Prior knowledge:
By secondary structure, the chain is an alpha+beta fold. It has helices at residues 14-30, 47-54, 69-81, 85-95, 104-107, 110-123, 143-151, 213-228, 270-280, 310-317, and strands spanning 9-10, 35-36, 59-66, 134-135, 154-165, 168-179, 191-199, 202-209, 255-256, 258-265, 285-293, 298-305, 308-309, 331-335. The protein contains ten helices and 14 strands.
Amino acid sequence: MALKKKINVITPNKALIAKHGDYLAKLAETNKVNLEFEAAVAGGIPVLRTIKEGLATNKIKKVYGILNGTTNYILSEMENTNQSFDKVLLKAQKLGYAEPGNPKLDLNGFDAFAKVRILSALAFNNKISKSNCIMEGIEKIQLKDIKIANQLNLRIKLLGISEILNNQLFETVHPCLVSKKKYIGNVNGVMNAVIIEGKPVGESVLQGEGAGPGPTSSSLLSDLLSILRGNIKYPFGISSKNRGSIKSFNKKNYSNSLYLRFEVNDKQGVLSLITNRLAKYKISVKRIIQTPDKKNKKATIVIVTHKTTENNINNCLSIFKKNRNILEFPTLIRLQN
């Protein structure tokens, strides 16, 4: 291995760093060489160096954003062209924004989640978390979800989030309904954006292209320049000896308002069945949108709830798997807190 032979290493491999970063960082420090991986997160956006150097004196409490250009392009293009997920995915593959063979790691949230792990380690000076967290992609998002979100003056974005809740670390990747009035709701196409909340700096925003030869080469050359300057730096900003562990926040207690879409038989009593089930679990309804399909005697019911916990909603929705008037398992999208 190069690090053992006292050779500096530059890598854009986020899966490698997310899984073995602690071990590799310690190896680099022991052998007094650099391990650089700026290109592993957010392409050409210098977010890792910003956290390690520019914001080194800040106490960061939250890092979140759009960390995958492929999914952001697909969601944006579905809205702009009124085309289905499958058609837009094919277009993304032809343009080189998605893997032509198997784009699964982008679509299912894994790519973004590896980046969240790295950002957490840097932002909170902790070892890379191994906890079981929420990781959801965009495969279940349909064009009708995009249209209904538009009615609500919202947009769907795949967000990666890392934050400290009750002195515990919470990491997640999942689709979010975001207000069109918010900055993050207006980052479209292949663009990435990272928002860092810290003290005393407040909120810092970094935006740029997240993938492609230009952004990636920019980050790789930045790492190379750092090495050529002759500076031996800690890969995660501080010594491995000083990086601790943070207890993980229980994902069952994570709370959000929710968008729930039900595809149902258009029969009397189906809506009350759903709302009664929600009431049983003390899930308060904020808004209901019902769209009948009279030709097929079916209907789409969308319910926006007030805040509830993951544990609550998972227990509540489980019953709908067994009801013949609920035609498919409900689609769940969280609203951005």
